[in-house]
Amino acid sequence: MSNEPLVLYFGAVQRPEFYSGLLDSGVALGVLRDSDSVHTLEPEEFALVERTRFADGADAVARCIEEIGRRWRIEAVLNVDETLVQLWAEVCARLGLPAMSGEAAAAVRSKSEMRRRFAEHIGEHASARSAVVTSEEQVLAFAAGTGYPVVLKPGNLWGSYFVSRCENAAELTAAYRELAATLPEFSAGQRVTDTPAEILVEEFLTGTNHSVECLVLDERVWTTPVVDVVTGTDLGGTDFHHFARVTATRLTPAERERMRALAADAVRALGIRRGLAHVEFVHGPAGPRLIEVAGRPGANRAPLLREAYGINLIAGYRDVLRGVEPSVEPVRDGAAAVVTPYPERAGTLVEYAGLERVHALASTAQVDVYKHPGDLVQPRHEGAGSPLRIELRADSPGQLLADLDELRGLCEDLFVVREAREVQDGGAREAAPAGAGLAGTAGAGLAGTDPESAGCPEAGG
């Protein structure tokens, strides 16, 4: 066995954000990639890349890691994929490697079990009232007891997939029928086999959305600064896709501290004693309330925390897994945001209107364009990925928030889309701007995620 330490990624490493913080750490990086995964990235910087079928089960995956361990000194096994949390916990337990416990992993993969634990260990007030439903009668009875609006969502997915806000019984019935028909096949297609395809209905929490990352080592929990999330509902729509994630929080210092304390309580309630958790909240008149916890890093959080505060989240993840206290204190006070706009309706992209004005914003650091003229673009609620991704960075929160407000206005007319019926009519009508991020009605508010973010909820993301 080599004395050289290795940080091994489990199953997939979707994007550079999940490993770039370790490239200059003096440790070799590797990935045991699930050969069936949609995530095929095999970074050239990695010293080891091996593949196996994770569908073969924990024993087979454990044998592969044992073989790697004969050649390397495995320092930590990092998981960044939501669908692999339970398998990661099981394999690491078999090999005696530090990871989340199997019980905790099961809790973070089931929204109903998660809510039960929040109520038991923190209190009924900690989260929204919710229920698992298996019929239209049950979902309507819940809404009759809580009042409208209510939220309908899967209990086993991530990234705001198929989450809809329903304003009345007709919308709720339509949304339930569509979700009940769609969820089993979709879950199978995503290879979600660790948790049942349950459906939850819950009370709608009024307020703003936020998230906190937690690094956990036994009884100790370190929390990162709060990240604000601008959702589709903030833009006037009815789905919960994440339009922007912003470090320049609008919460007061006291509100932030209360939220970070609740994040630590949440991971303890779930029995997480080792690893990294992504905790999401709604902040309303009564303070923060928990939405859910994911057992892996939140999408986009590592680059946001690095650019704004100099915090190396992934290095902290490695540290707690190897039993070392992480460093999460900010070393600077900048600001950063990641914005993923969507068209209001589906169709063929004609052009981006005003994209040069997006580039010209003082805070714009990078614009990644995934869809080009002639490509099909869709709203988030149709299960599509964002056509482009915009990174903002500024020296001060005020500058970033000013540019973000301007960007929201620019995105309203950003997408010029020719709808399918316009194409069928021979393009007789002029294509009109399709708006951005305002998509969906409650009955069809089925939010998806970026292809590169699959398994990384904007819980959360």
Describe the structure.
By secondary structure, the protein is of the alpha+beta class. The chain has helices at 58-71, 85-95, 102-108, 111-121, 136-146, 169-189, 253-269, 301-309, 313-321, 355-360, 397-411, 420-424; strands spanning 5-11, 28-34, 48-52, 73-78, 130-133, 150-154, 164-166, 199-203, 208-217, 220-223, 227-231, 242-246, 274-284, 287-294, 335-339, 347-352, 364-369, 376-377, 388-394, 415-418, 432-433. A hairpin with a 2-residue loop joins strand 13 and strand 14. Helix 1 crosses helix 2, helix 2 packs antiparallel against helix 3 (102-108) and helix 5 packs across helix 6 (169-189). The longest helix is centred in the middle third of the chain and has 21 residues, at 169-189. Residues 423-430 and 437-460 have low confidence and may be disordered.
Number of helices: 12
Q: What is the CA-based Rg, rounded?
A: 22 Å
Globally, the shape reads globular
What structural category arises from helix and sheet content?
Answer: alpha+beta
> The biggest beta sheet, please?
9 strands, antiparallel
- Averaged pLDDT, please? 87
